Known about the structure:
Distance between the termini: 42 Å
Structural class: mainly alpha
Helix content: over 70%
Shape: flat
Order of helices and strands: HHHHHHHH
Bound molecules: fe (ii) ion
Low-confidence stretches: none
Largest sheet: none
Strand content: under 5%
Amino acid sequence: MDKDKIIALLNQDLEGEHGAIIQYLTHAYAMGEGEMACEIEAIAREEMRHLDWLAETIVKLGGVLSLKRGEMRMGGEAVADWMRNSVLLEKDGINLYREHIESVDDPKIKRLLKRILSDEESHHGDFQHFVDKAGREGAKDVRGTRTDRVVQTLNWGIEHEYTVILQYMFQSYMTTNKAAKKELEDQAINEMQHLGWLAEEIVDISGNPRIEHIEVDQSTKTADMLRADIKIEQEVSAAYDHAAKETEDPDLKELLLRIRDHEIYHTEVFSDLLKEEQG
Ligand SMILES: [Fe+2]
Ligand SMILES: [Fe+2]
Ligand SMILES: [Fe+2]
């Protein structure tokens, strides 16, 4: 099998992991606090590790990462239905990994795919168990229908955070600047935290978090990446600042100001990196 074909297969797997992460996080947030939500989030974290291994492999082969999100199975009214859908999603993944393991000859890549497959088989069992557990314990969708300005602002925040998570991850795999790689990785993790806080806040106030993103900058030169990042961080710091000043709710204000301060920090980190990159 030639290199381009392997890259295409791995990108298909990467897209699948991306879809699974968003499906599971959406469910975990929708269930509020609780043991099952935590376990589902832990599965999403394992999918992130898979995504990381696949991305590293694709870049090593000289490929460009796909930012497309794979098929999700988001239907269903009750939590047990969601869990049934996640069983099916894992089954989709298992079938695809089995096919890919068959068709790839490279022993290291084969080994990696087998390693991931064993996790997916275990997740498949976990979700089957959650179908019963959800039925037995009556796990609930705790989201509400509130759609006022506050919820819109928080959902705008999620859209931004999701966009920069993808952008910084993409850049951290693609850049050849080691210091930039490390910072982009760190800040992507910090943006994941922000996304989680915002989603949890929306659920707390009876809204519905919407995990969608806008266009991701896909510059391949480090200086261009950092310029795009600085611009987006400056815009978003100002937007969080504005939203914080607008709200009367002290807890929400505190949350927005905390995120704003992180974004200011990101701007400064990226600005320093850009200076170094330009020598
Ligand atoms: Fe999985
Ligand atoms: Fe952020
Ligand atoms: Fe940021």
